[in-house]
Structures
1.
Amino acid sequence: MKSLKSFKMNFRKKDPFHDGGRCGVRMKQLPFMGILCIGMVFVVYRTMIYQHHQTQIDARMDPFDISREIHLSSWQLRNLPRGIVQAASDLELRPLWSHGNSNSKKFQLDSSGAEVEYPTGRYLLAMPVGIKQKHNVHAIVQKFLPENFTIMLFHYDGKLDGWNDLAWSAHALHVVAHNQTKWWFAKRFLHPNIVSLYDYIFLWDEDLGVRNFHPGRYLRIVRSAGLEISQPALHPNSTEIHHRITIRARTKKFHRRVWDMRGSTKCTNSSRGPPCTGFVEGMAPVFSRSAWFCTWHLLQNDLVHGWGMDIKLGYCAQGDRTKKVGVVDSEYIFHMGIQTLGGGDHSGKKASSSEEHSNKNSKHGSSFDVRMEIRRQSTRELEIFKERWNKAVEEDKNWFDPFTMDSVVVGDDHERRRLKHRHKVRA
Ligand SMILES: *[C@@H]1O[C@H](CO)[C@@H](O)[C@H](O)[C@H]1NC(C)=O
Ligand SMILES: *[C@@H]1O[C@H](CO)[C@@H](O)[C@H](O)[C@H]1NC(C)=O
Ligand SMILES: *[C@@H]1O[C@H](CO)[C@@H](O)[C@H](O)[C@H]1NC(C)=O
Ligand SMILES: *[C@@H]1O[C@H](CO)[C@@H](O)[C@H](O)[C@H]1NC(C)=O
């Protein structure tokens, strides 16, 4: 139903442009009509800007029109006629041949293996995966496939062959890079110009239980609430709950803030920023197209653990982060907190201790703890990120903090030290 609706909307959206084309011809004969048409097109254009969540890949008001304009004016493209330039792409598999006129058609296989035409609303699920989590990843993907998601897996353990027996595997995209993190993959393979087709991007960890999660319902909530950055709430039984705002509120559909007067955490109605409001955590973020465009630019190429990013994500919320960032309660997940490499924040995995490693790391006694090393590296990266942010703020004379009213208070005990570091950034 939903896709049908947006399909109709897209049709309606297209019409003015067809009209605009016709007007363009008439304009030559009738200057008055021409001005009218230009005005009309402008109004539609402005409307389109606000409807940035609607896919319109071939229309001129594509959100990446800006970058296209930059490209067009660039020296390198000067010999190409404007109309041939395509600044965006997607991750869809395409048939080697097609029957009849399928110029604008996109294909996907449904569960029975039949080819179906793509709906207008398209979404991307991108996950770092290791073969040890195959069972769980399979469960997640099966939930997403019927909802017209494109699946992209980042294999950080290189064990690609182990997935071949799953029917959907041949229709997913697989990227292999040993020991790389979710953010490393995302920076390299989810460039905004490549994923501009997708209304929403789910950049999830592999250790999430989705028994109580339905992607379609989730998207309906996120859309109607206008959440540009979101995450499903975590069931209270989840391990590694770092922030109260991520915990599921049983009676709500979604929430944008948390109230908490206990301990060192003071989240009140006057709280204006993380972790009380305007905040999601790194394990299951969902981005709108525009939010992802911003987030990708915020991602640092070399800081692969992504620490410190979550606290800044609100700057990519395309407006007031207390309104456009939220946690969906009615569709929730279990965070299993399994130690995997691919996950950002809580990443790390135990390696079998070897002589060589233990010698190199006498500080940690006899066994080399990969997890500990990753944690230390993450902390280092966090410091670097903070420095970069502060330097950028200092150097950009035109920048002003849209969220100057922030009151940042620190949460759970085991996260306190880390957060303390993080929050210094804001000071
Ligand atoms: C997925 O796409 C198919 C084919 O276009 C459509 O019939 C179906 O309703 C879509 N499902 C959802 C959940 O959007
Ligand atoms: C990846 O990490 C594991 C464990 O830390 C290590 O044993 C392996 O050699 C690494 N692989 C590569 C290709 O670096
Ligand atoms: C959550 O944990 C409680 C206490 O351990 C248990 O009784 C309950 O069944 C758990 N709920 C789920 C959904 O796992
Ligand atoms: C916070 O705001 C809510 C909703 O506006 C209101 O019901 C509540 O009384 C307020 N609480 C405080 C402590 O001001």
Note: Residues 237 surround 2-acetamido-2-deoxy-beta-D-glucopyranose (ligand 3) (CB under 6 Å).
2.
Amino acid sequence: MSPGLLNDANTAQAAKVPGDSLRSPKKLKRTKTELAAMYQCVRLMVQMNARACVITQLTGLPSLEVRDLWQQIAGRSSPSGQQPNDLNWYLKTPTRRYHSALIVQLYVRALRTMPEYAALTHAYYHYGRITGSMVSRGVWQERGDPAFRASEKDYEISFARAHFICKSYSDELLSTGQRKCTLKIKRCQKGECGGMYMSTENEAGRYCPLCTG
Ligand SMILES: [Zn+2]
């Protein structure tokens, strides 16, 4: 993992995420250039095993068209299955904690200059590259890029789960002063570590899972 990437997005300020950061796409009339950029992202998302229903939600393109594109690009049909709905899942292992914090930070940074669908595509692509050494070469070599793996199971956090946490995560507070989202990205307070990890407001401890263990 590149320390530079994390350091840059390391301040609490940089991790501030507005609520509803992945709103449904507005049905705006898009220019040719915007459409070309969107289809380029769709291709990348398919190569990263994003499910057709997630691509549909992100882009606002018709579901049938996205399924056809999926088939054309991947030569098989989109994986399906239950959509993620459990935020505690991201806390269950140290790797999930680090990876989900990384994805949200990459996403928030990309969102400064891109629409949601492109920000998530870029964030997930970088996530795939950064974590490529964790999987065997066999799952991506044919495709020529560690971000493009054989199946969504070849990522610690699938695109569908990345989408769910980016859509759910927020640093905003309710009028009661409580956080809107139960999850909270924290920075490890041990010495020089400073690693960012997913936690909750109430979770005890000031160290990341690696420094705690
Ligand atoms: Zn640490």
Note: The longest strand covers residues 183-187.
